[in-house]
Specification:
Length: 295
């Protein structure tokens, strides 16, 4: 069996690293400053590694120590959850999911009633996942990221979602009022952009209609806003097989032509492998997989 450092030393380290201050850790743990220093020295000797860089009264965790801090915080949370379940077997599991705003608004939220019906014992907390963040924050059980996720496969579980296909979408009213029979017909329409540099539309036009010059552009910088503007007939947007799925199924949007391109980016489910010990995390991954398979 693997020998671990004392739980007291690990708990002391977690508090000191979180506060970046031995004195604040001592106050939180109701011990003396010297007791904190003793526990940290003992832990450094056991691990054979320096955990803090001293800067006067302040201390900063080393890069190795920050990794240990993250793992300990997750481990302590799992231990706490298990203890809560033992104290109250009927208690509901808490599941913290981070997801990009676009995917939450246009795909996930509409399906959460099914999740609640399937797993009534799980209380779901949704958090915003920054688009540029590769993985989940420390307090998050599972993130739906845009990108390939962290490269450290030994630490992180990563499951890519289906490859994104980009294609033009518009309201039925706009389509019927000014028919779009061929990509060149886009020259008469306003193009709605979900970015500020026009890359999505540029990529599609380069492939399917490189010689046209659309009459007008509006840059909304957000897929949810862009889809809503398209629904209201304000122009033609670039949709995809995830964020446009519900609007297409309901008839709020239509695809004027089948031409599409494959995106270089995609969404992925990401969590620290330690989190897979939490049954609610596994349940959510299985549910997401079922939802995607049904599309």
């Amino acid at each position: 069996m693997r020998r671990l450092p004392s739980l007291t030393a690990l708990r002391t380290f977690e508090s000191a690293a979180r506060h970046a201050h031995f004195g604040r850790a001592a106050a939180e743990l109701c011990v003396t400053d010297s007791a904190v220093s003793h526990q940290i020295r003992q832990l450094e000797e056991q691990l054979g590694a320096t955990l803090f860089e001293r800067q006067g009264r302040q201390v900063q965790p080393t890069p190795q120590a920050r990794r240990l801090l993250r793992s300990l915080q997750q481990a302590f949370e799992l231990i706490g959850t298990a203890c809560d379940e033992l104290r109250d077997p009927g208690s509901q599991a808490q599941l913290h999911i981070a997801v990009t705003v676009e995917l939450a608004q246009k795909w996930l939220v509409g399906r959460l009633a099914d999740f609640a019906e399937r797993y009534p014992e799980i209380v779901l907390h949704l958090h915003e996942q920054p688009l540029e963040a590769p993985g989940p924050a420390a307090e998050i059980d599972l993130a739906i990221t845009y990108g390939t996720g962290p490269a450290d496969a030994s630490t992180y579980f990563v499951r890519p979602l289906p490859t994104l296909q980009f294609f033009p979408v518009c309201s039925p009213g706009l389509f019927n009022q000014s028919p779009l029979k061929h990509p060149r017909d886009l020259a008469r329409h306003c193009l709605l952009h979900d970015d500020q540099d026009g890359k999505s539309w540029t990529a599609w036009l380069t492939t399917h209609a490189s010689d046209i010059r659309p009459s007008r552009h509006v840059y909304l910088g957000h897929a949810g806003l862009t889809m809503e503007a398209a629904v209201r007939g304000q122009g033609v947007a670039i949709g995809d097989n995830l964020t446009s799925a519900e609007d297409l199924a309901s008839g709020r949007l239509v695809r004027p032509f089948a031409a599409q391109i494959t995106s270089l980016g995609q969404y992925a489910l990401v969590c620290e492998r330690l989190r897979l010990e939490k049954p609610a995390v596994v349940d959510f991954i299985e549910w997401m997989t079922d939802q995607l398979n049904d599309m």
